[in-house]
Amino acid sequence: MELEEKINNYWFAIEPYVFVGFSDKEVVLYNTLDKQIVESNKLEVVELMRETLQKENCGVLFLSYERYNHLDIRQFIFQLREKFMGDIIEVGLSNGKPIQLLPYYDFITKGVNPKNIYLSDNKNVLENLSEISIHVDSNISDRLLIPILRSIPNIVVFNVVGDWNDILNHEDLLFFLVNHSSNKYIICSYKNLTHLRIDLNNFKFKVSVHLPIEINEWNKSIDILYNHSLDVEYIFDVSSEEDCLKVELLTEKYKIEKFQLNPIYTGDNILFFKKHIYLSKEDILSASISIKDFYIRQSMNAYDFGKINIMSNGDVYANMDHPKLGNIYMNSIYDLVQKEIEEGLSWFRIRDQSPCDTCIYQWYCPSPSKYEIAIGYSNLCHVKPNSKKYE
After folding, report:
1. What is the pLDDT of residues 262-285, one digit of tens each?
2. pLDDT band for position 113 (50/70/90)?
3. What gap in Å lies between CA 48 and CA 74, rounded to an integer?
4. Which of 286, 234, 241 minimizes the C-alpha distance to 259?
């Protein structure tokens, strides 16, 4: 019996809920169910994983008795089994190679454009839209804009962005959105809030706050928003640790529970960003990431995809830092969305550029954000890639 056990060959398999990042020098496996991690820089282990993840193997690899008994591989497999991330099956106990799902989807492959996945016919292309921000001022035309908005799917979220008084001067637009079944937000500064002239209880509010506050306007905004029992979230612009401390005092004093910080890059506060915004290896690996999240990060920008901005003059942008797509009064909404899918820079901006494309944590990191554009670096992290990935 002992002799038979010594000559057993195995099938080595990775569980389908495990995502693998690897290079020619190291490998990282992440269990999307419980965030457990296994890392190895042993060359035999890296080669084992590289072979296992080849498409023809589909996450299952024949493992000879001799290879299994390599110390590094045996220890690695013990770790995987202990954390329910992989397993081995005796070849003699199966009728053939076990069927397994590949634990990752190589979405971005040489010669394949991921945008093609989203190219669809006339009636479906607008279903890619998820959020529209309408920037209002005295120049915007409710008469021209409202008929266009009627063609937008009901699932789209609408943001009305601008000065409070300008927003209230467009009662026709607000009345149209009040009666629209989608989720709606008003995004404005806390400054110069005046009495509400129409019922806006169907809207949620995102109130931006730039420090230092003007106390009279601040107190007025607090009274107006809370007296009307509106759903309010505060967005505090911060560019330093001092700003963060001021926000902490404000939220405690005024019992503000629903708020978020919006870091602002000023050009001379890179140390603040490196300390509080840049990701460390521990930050990256401590995040809760689903298999779906990994697929999204390889195919589209989670921050920008499905979103457009309509300016008061009708110009349309997918991202305000990228070139405009056209004008809503001159181009159909369908053509503008199709242009972003086929030619745009925003919806499909992923971590496929240097140095992220040589980093083992390439798809563990969130999608590129507005900060990469503002700062001028594609990798806002403290991880230094040092090896070339397999193609």
Report:
1. 999 999 999 999 999 999 999 999
2. low
3. 11
4. 234
pLDDT band at 391 (very low <50, low <70, confident <90, very high): very low
User: Does residue 239 register a pLDDT over 60?
Assistant: yes
pTM greater than 0.85 (yes/no):
yes
Question: Could you give the percent of the chain with pLDDT greater than 90?
Answer: 72
Please tell me the number of Cα atoms within 13 Å of 149 on its side-chain side.
Answer: 30
